[in-house]
TrEMBL record:
UniProt-recorded name of the protein: Amino acid adenylation domain-containing protein
Record-annotated Carrier domain positions: 941-1017
A GO molecular-function annotation: ligase activity
Keyword Phosphoprotein: yes
Listed Pfam families: AMP-binding, Condensation, NAD_binding_4, PP-binding
Database matches in Gene3D superfamilies: 3.30.300.30, ACP-like, Chloramphenicol acetyltransferase-like domain, N-terminal domain of ligase-like, NAD(P)-binding Rossmann-like Domain, Nonribosomal peptide synthetase, condensation domain
Amino acid sequence: MDIHHNRIPLTRPQHQIWLASESCPDKALYTESVLLTFDNAPAPAQLDRALNRLVQTTETLRLRVTRGKDGPLQYDAGYTPFACRVIPLSGEEELTAVFNEQSRYCFDLYDSALFNAVIYTLPGKTALLLRVHHIVADSYAMAAVYSRLLAICAGEDPQPFVSFLSRAAAAGADVEEERLADRGFWQDYLSGAETGRLPHPMPDQSGHRLVWSSHTVGKERSDRLRAFAAQQNVTPYCIFFAAYAVYLSRMLGTEDVVIITPRLNRGTDEDRNAAGMYTLAVPVRLHIAPDASFAALCQEVQAQNRLAAAHKGYGLSEIMGDLSRTGMAGALSHFTLSYQNFTLPLHGLPVRCAMHFGGAMTNLLTLHVLDWSGMGDYQFRLDYRASYYTPHEITQIAQMLRAILDQGMGDCTLPCRSIELLTDEDKFCQRALLSGPVLPVDPNDTIITRFRAQAALHPDRRALSGKGPSYTFRELDEASDRVARNLIAAGVQPQSYVAFLLPRTTALPVMLLGILKAGAAYVPIDCSYPEERIRFILSDSKAGLLVTEADITGAGCPVIAPSPLFDPPQQPDAPLPAVGQDWLCYIIYTSGTTGKPKGVMIEHRGIVNFMQPDNNEFNRDICANGKGIVAVGSVCFDISMFELFSTLLNGIPVVFADEEGMNNPDALAQYITENGANILHCTPSRLLAYLEEPSFREAMRSVDIVLAAGEAFTQPLLDALHRATPARLYNGYGPTEITIGATVGRIRERITIGSTIAGARIYLLDKDRRIVPLGATGEIAVAGYGVARGYLGRPDLTAERFIELRDGPINDRVYLTGDYGYALPNGSLAYCGRNDEQVKLRGLRIELKEVERCIESFPCIRQCAALVRTIDGREHLCCFYSAAEPCDVDELKQYAGGFLTRYMVPDLFVYLPDLPHTSNGKIDKRALANQAIHVERTYIPPRNARERTMCRIFSQVLNLPEEEIGATDSFFDLGGTSLQAAQIVLLAKHEGFELEYGRVFDHPTVRDLVQCCDLDGGDLPEPVLSEAGSLPCTQQEAALLRDALCRNRNYRKGLHPLGTVLLTGATGFLGIHVLYELLTTGYNKIYCMVRPKNNLTPEKRLKGSLFYYFENNFAEAFGHRLFAVDGDLMRENIASLPDGVKIDTVIHCAADVSHFGVGNRIRQTNVDGVRNVIAFCKQHDAALIHISTLSVGGFIEREMAEIGVSLSEQRLWVRQDLSNDYLESKFTAEKLILLETANGLRAKIMRVGNLQGRITDGEFQMNRATNGFTKLLQSIVRTGLCPQSMACSWINFSPVDAVARAICRLAGSAEEYTVFHIFDSNDLPVSKLLTHISALGYPVRAVDDREFDEFMLHAAEDPAFNGALDGFLTRVTGGRHLIETPCESGFSIRALEQEGFLWPEISDEYLSAYLTGLDTLGAFQ
């Protein structure tokens, strides 16, 4: 067959390019351009002939792509002579411009030429521009093509290329097999990767325009790099990759970096001699350990690149598709590194070469390292997205890469974290960029002197109006003088603190000024504060006086009414203190996100600096154009200081709105209109809400200047303001700790928080408190006049947040805000938010957003907010929610328990018709923190000594007063945790209670626990005896169970076919191996019941599990042998089967394997679900193969085991303890099934042992964290302890693949047999397992059981052991001498032997591989 006249599919690398090109068909994403400039000015006709010869002999340049029925195809369009365009240009400057412009043009991908050329003539030179689409040639191929062209120009006759189409046709048969082989690797390799991280958020308008930037590495540095590579036995590529990774790690603020890199993908000489598209892009993941040296990082780069390259066959688009199906959105990485080390022989011609590797881009930054032979030194080419980076940032990136190389290669032992990206000059420049201008500040200036100056300038101008008397500047000056002198007469001393709690009348600003004139600092208290908070502020501030009309009990300081302070003083001419600029002005209490309120101490100097007319753009505007402001900010927040002082200290009148004006947009509109105020300062959320009111929108027409600060300024607010008013709009930023604000700016093209005010400096810091490079997001730290003195009486917190910043030449006192932002090139700042949505509750970390998302998904919930509240001295996770009507709290808790871990389910749900909102529209969590919670709790006293003892145990564990614990109070509602439940068991032991751990979950109240202990102690009714053991049941049930179990004695060889199988739990660890056994050993049709999940269909979930465990998704079996059907055990009709399908056998592998849980979730799945399975089998006349567990044997007294009591195939009840929810549910399910065999159900119960990794390769289950035995091993490793009773016992090891084979073998046995034990009876000594664990470097010590109990009691209180004890919890026995019930399996072993099955040996090699695998996966970390 002549393939040149046929159309063949694209190769895998070409297909990746095609997919990406289709996403942006109008962009030159994959257009490679080369400009060859000939300094000897050959004639255009000569170049034209060479080009024709090149195309005639180069198949690649003739390739075209067309649409086919099953996807794109490619073909050779053949050679047709052509005439190349010749265009005259004025010089090389115009040539460069044309080169750049032409490189941005995209090809028409279908049925058009994918190569073109243009000849340019210019004085003394001739240039040739060649462009090719990446789908037909990669950079390696194009270098060969360009070299061939130059050879032709030099009169040579180069060797022909190997046909790419021939190679592509030969490679096609291997594509699918290779693709499947690599998929599982990438799923594991990228699991948990921090994908898609950015230095700062993407701008709203982010096009694909690409800009090229070239930078030199330098000859001397290039030589050192080659020498360093040889010394470290790595390639130069690895060194550049490591430098790029260090840079990205710092810019992204993560140690986990993913970089996309193209791989050559030419494994044979034929491929290397073919000009085509072979390159495959692969993600390389790198962990930049902070303490690792740069040399070690280079070694790791080499290892990770080799690892990724070995699996390059699976395309990047497929990887991205797989990740998106797991919930990842967006890019895997925005950063690419391309190493170009091809040779471009010039064949003796005076020619210069320039290249563009694309004309547009979807990623953000590509680093091309050019290693072209003959160039002498390496070159950097940085291709960047123009909408994201600036030329200055790119220049700095190149500089940082060189700096990383110099430091990393200069000192082989230098830790990566010690590499400095920025020079001292860089740091100075960034400080200059983010520093406001320095304005002269009179050292004697204070708020008082500035105000008196305005009163002297404008004595009769209105200064203050509102509810109450109006004041001119003179009147306000005089009134505040009277207040000051009366305060002094009342005992106020200079630099003391005066608190006030006053309604919003004009008397309040007068009082404020009076306090300052008296030389004191004021402490504002809001009238709405609860008395507890008021008393705290008064006590904490040590206020010498409280001015209020309210009746405050326990103020702890003298209280004076405000009205006498306005009277003429007894000494009207008494001198007032000379206030210093470094004296405190006010103390404002702010709660922050956690902790008790803290008093922020602000000095006069910060206010004086901020209020200067030229301090910032907003001040200049109001001083030039302001007519008055309506003040609506609470005096307990520094927004009010801005409203009062930025105006009064600059001669601008203030309209002081009362509470109605603050909260009612109609009233505020009236204030604006009646007073002619044209300045408004309001928080964004409040402003957005007010703009909904017509009267307010009308009033806004007369407002000229608006500052909306205090929270995020949003685009909807900007749009609403533009519709309502032509006013000039400003935004600002600044926590209380930096005196009102640090940045202010007018909003023009984009929303920012403005630029730094005069007298302030801003630094953006990483987690190590180093200045981040330009463009990176960092924590905002503020220095300058406005930085507070600190927190009153909190030296620890002051030292934590107010620090001396030392970074190279920078030495400055700064406040760490906890907010994050990044700098724009013009020096303004963009705000990125903060990260305080993570809290700890009783030592456990909780993501509040995760809780809220779960609760909000509950039907009928409109909004919710989760926060930790302290109630009756105990922390609780509370959920406030709004809905049309209150929800059933039990249903809410049960619903949340299905998605969240136990400690993340809120203790309390509080219904509110509407949640309070802050001014920016966000839920006001501070308001909810003070929201009254009415906990309906009836105290029931203990009725006897045992209940009183249990109350005392609860009290001791929960640290609550014993008298507050009632007999019906739930341990968990009181704040108990799973670890504290273990403490309950251990303390109960000392008081004579026989209590199992699981009982605390099943019976969490004092009374229920005591009652179940009493029953466990021997007060059970006399059981009915049967051959099945002692089972509490009716005589009739006992007889039925005896009949069902006694058949399992003498096995007769013989198997029957299973027919059409319905398999439940098919994606689970055992279920998937049962499916594999059925697929590979039989010819059954198999219907797998799989629930859709995360937008994945049942078939996709099943294929994914098959591939994960077996690297084969059995695609060929789907549709004729294998079928995935939607199903749910909670439905009466458990599986949605196609019409006409008859099921012969149900293999029921599905189960909830949680050992403990609150509520009935476990029982629903394992008992109610089994009822539905039984009903399905009876309806379809199908046999049931039910997968159970040997653990139904539970725990028995040691003495019973010593006299031979055990669980066998003929027994179910041996007086075992079943306090574990899971075991009890599996026990009940077995009982149901065995009883139903009397009603015609054909059923077998397969009790499996301790499922572990495959015997073939040790592969363990995907979700190893849920495996109880793995949890036990984790606890042993993390504590280094094992109780002696356990260390001397034996443990069963059952490889999952062997178990699956045994199940499928015995599933076809005679109908009479009802129970098989599927486990290897050759148990493993636990001591041997401990020896292997110790050999891994985790020494384990066996300790006396009493010592172990004491350890558990104390460790449960130690946060250092959080999570380390979980595996022991199911073994907590509260003092009863219980052991796991021994199991016999003689009947099953004989059956398996007769059917040709033998259990594999658990060898030392297997154990070592198994434990090493767990360790490698991080199970023991």
